[in-house]
Amino acid sequence: MLKPALRRAWRGRNTVQFGVTPAHAVTLGPVDIATGSFLELLDGTRGLPLLREEARSLDLSDRHVDVLVRRLAEAGLLDDPRAGGPQADVLRHRAEVMERQRPDVASLSVVHPGPGEGLRRMAARRAMRVQVRGAGRVGASIAAVLSGSGVGQVEVLDGGRAEPGDVAPAGLPPAAVGERRDVAARRLVRRAAAGPPRPTWADRSPAGGQPGLSLIVVAPRDGLSVYAPVPDTAAPWIASGTPHLYAGVIEATGVVGPLVLPGGTGCAGCLELHRADRDAQWPRMLAQWRSGRRGAVPACDLALATAVAGLAAAHALSFLDGELPASTGARWEAALPLLDWRSERIGPHADCSCGAATGTEGAGASGSVPAQDTMAG
Fold it and tell me: Which of 59, 206, 248, 313 could form a disulfide with 226 if both were Cys (CB 3.0 to 4.6 A apart)?
C-alpha cells in the first residue's frame, strides 16, 4: 500500500508528489493516466498477483507494474500492513492500543521509510525503560508524553509533595497537590499510557531483575541543575554507559540538551570545564548559586515549560527510535519573550574524566544508533 500518511498531488500532467513538506516529500515521474489510476489501487487490499491482473485491464504490463512497485519501494513510499515482525503482530491485534497510537505509527512510517518500520519501531518502544528525574512542570509532562507515545516503562523520581506550582495541563493535575510527587507521577504515567501497563521485568523474568535503562531524562524542578548540572550526579551514568538528556527552565529560559552518549559526546563535566575556560569567574559564581537559598519561586512560565517538555520528549523518542537528534552533544536554548531557539555545540573537554575527548567521538556524535543498541546498564 502507498503510505497513507503522505498526501498526494499532481505537480503537472505527468509528475506526482507524495508529501507536503520538503523534509519528507518525494516526486515520481513520468506518470501517465493509466499509471495514475493504478496508484489508486495500492491501498493495502490487494497483493501483487491481483495488482498485476487489474493492471492488465489498464493496458499496463506485468513488467511495468514490477518496475513501478520497485521504484515506489526504493523511494520509501510503500508500506506493508502485515510487516514489522512478531512484536508488531502482537501490537497490531491490540485494538485499544492501535486506535490511540495510529497517528504515532503514521509519523514513524514517514520518518523510517521501510515497509512495516512504523509499527516495528512502535513495538520496540514497548520494550524500553526510561527514567525521568523530576516531577515538576517539565519533568511530569515529559513522563506523560513518553508513556503516551508507547514507551513500555517510564519511571519518575522526585521527592516531597506536589505543590500548586507543579500543576500543568500535560503534567500533574490539580488533584495531585499535597500528594507525594512520585506517587502522583506514577498515576499520571499510567493514565497517559495507551492500553494497560506493560508487565514489569520482575513479573516476566525468573531472575527478577530489571532491564537496563534505555535513557535517563534529567528534568529537575530546579532549573540550575539543568543549566549547570553537577558532574558528580552524572558520574554513575557515565560509568555505566547510560545515555542521558537534560531539559528544564531557568529564569524564563528553556533548555533542551545535551543528550550525552558516555564516551562519545561532551558531558556535564565537559560543559562546566568549557565554561570555566571562557569565564574565569564562572566557578566562583556557580559555587554561590549552588549553595545559596532556593526558597524563591522559580521563573518557569507554563507555556515555555510545556514547549520544553514537548521538545525534550521528541528528542528522547527520536533517540529511542534509533536516531541521533540535534541535542546530541549540543544544547538548545530559547528565552522569553522572543523564543528564538539557538543551539550550542558542547564538545568533549580534554581535562574531563569522562574520556570522550580521547575516544572516537564519531561513534557517539554522528550517524544512527539502532534502537536495540540504545540499551545500557
Answer: 248
